[in-house]
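Hi P.,

Sorry for the delay on this. The queue was packed all week, but I finally got your sequence through. Input first:
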Amino acid sequence: MGEETEITLGVLNAVHDNSRVTQRSVSKDLGIALGLTNSYLKRCIKKGLIKVQQAPANRYAYYLTPRGFAEKSRLTAEYVTQGFRFFRITKIQCAEIFENCKARGWSRVALHGLTDIAEIAVLSAANADIQVVGVIDSSSALKTYAGAPVVAHFEQLEQVDAVVITDLGQPQIGYDKMVERLSVSRVFAPAILNVSPSASGVRKTS
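Then the structure:
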């Protein structure tokens, strides 16, 4: 789901949950600028998705129109569908990586990045009889995840056979760092992360 569609859904949800919602509270909840919130509200009003009425104390009340309800339902279904698609594709790609590791006799794997992909990777590793020996993520406050230590640096882990990139923010940078510490043959990234082979020669699953 694109950013524009996701913000629109967020605005429609906010209005549906509370007709007395303010632009400032929507801005805070969605993590976007106040001016951008105002722009999206105006756009939804212009499209006939939201109607606005003046309330006491110079405030405004926002309501979803029937068209707005229908659009909210459509976007929600799209969001859920894409979420399942992401999970299914990532799970398949992680399983392929772990089967590759298992075929090489590698059973101790570290993950780089504590994200939704790491959660999927942990499930796939268990199915492949692969041990996740740690998660490398310098920004996480967690000490452990799924029974494995969460560390800031690769050097804090012992006996790592391979690393799987699970970082959603900067997967290419994470891959490059891990290749420096291991080798190209021992660092993997699910194809969904779009790590560029031309940049680093990463082994990708299809």
